[in-house]
Amino acid sequence: MATALAPHTVKHGQHIFFYNNIRTNQVLYSFTRTLNNNDALKQIPFLGKKTVPAKLRKDLWQPFAMVEFTNPLHGLVAYRKLREFRRLHETSYPLKVIRHKGTGPLLGTKKRGRALMDQKANSVADLAAVLLQQEQEPTAKQIQISDNRINHNNRLRKQKGDQNVWGRPVSARELSGVKGVKVRWANKLDAGFAKSWPRGVVHRNLMKNRHTAAFPAWPLHMQRRKRAGFLVPGKVARQRE
Questions:
Q1: Neighbour count for residue 146 (Cβ, 10 Å)
Q2: CA distances from 98 to 114, 124, 151, 237 (A)
Q3: Is 164 left (phi over 0), alpha (psi -120 to 50) or beta?
Q4: Is there a contact between 228 and 3 (Cβ–Cβ < 8 Å)?
Q5: Which residues does 207 contact at the CB level (< 8 Å), separation at least 6?
Q6: How far is it between the farthest Cα atoms of the chain?
Q7: 180 pLDDT exceeds 80?
Q8: pLDDT value at position 158?
Q9: pTM: predicted TM-score of the whole model, two decimal places
Q10: How far apart are CA 118 and CA 41, in angstroms?
Q11: Alpha-carbon gap, residue 42 to 58, rounded angstroms
């Protein structure tokens, strides 16, 4: 008989999933393969009437990219920067974005909201910019600041004890480098929204299921399903007697 499979867990920060709305091109970032309704709605800003839905419709949100990091710390830093860059796109945009054909009169409230909701191209360009920043070696000032934070944290631990001090700073040297980073695309043409990418980044196709993002360990997952007797794409796994 077929046995139930344990859910595949992903290390927090090791993968970032990109979802876009097929109608408005709004973009959501997620650490998990499925979108959480409450967490996702917090990412959608109010740009006018009916720009923030009451709840997410899974048939309108589809994954278009997934980034895989070798170091989860790199993913956490990239996620924070992606959120910050998008906030700038939504609040500190040039006037040509909300003008008719770039130079005409200002758009109406509804069309202005539509223009600001279209963040798919910006999200791809932001991702490339974040990876280019991580590719560079940290400056002497950044290393000094991180070392000072580590020394201060060590002094607090000696004074108060490890149990009374929360968190541990990370050296700036550990947050640089893009070796082993993979970007998977549902449509590889979307990578053209960015002017350039780091040389160490590998671009691949995105294998996905309906309403969910790509499975990070797809070959291993399919082998487990085949052994358990579940269906696989294009074939029927015969149950072993």
A1: 18
A2: 9, 21, 48, 54
A3: alpha
A4: yes
A5: 184, 214, 215, 218
A6: 72
A7: yes
A8: 84
A9: 0.77
A10: 16
A11: 16
Question: Which amino acid, one-letter code, is at 98?
Answer: I
When the pLDDT of each residue in the chain is averaged and rounded to a whole number, the result is 81
Structure-token match 């990418």, residue found: 197
Name the residue type at position 36: N
Write out the chain in H/E/C secondary structure: CCCCCCCCCCCCCCEEEEEEECCCCCEEEECCCCCCHHHHHCCCCCCCCCCCCCCCCCCCEEEEEEEECCCHHHHHHHHHHHHHHHHHHHHCCCHHHHEHHHCCCECCHHHHHHHHHCCHHHHHHHHHHHHHHHHCCCCHHHHHHHHHHHHHHHHHHHHHCHHHCCCCCCCHHHHCCCCCCEEEECCHHHHHHCCCCCCCCEEEECCCECCECCCCCHHHHHHHHHHHCCCECCECCCCCC
Give me 48's structure tokens.
């006018």
Q: Could you tell me the pLDDT band of residue 241, with boundaries at 50, 70 and 90?
A: very low
Check: CB of residue 30 under 8 Å from CB of residue 17. yes
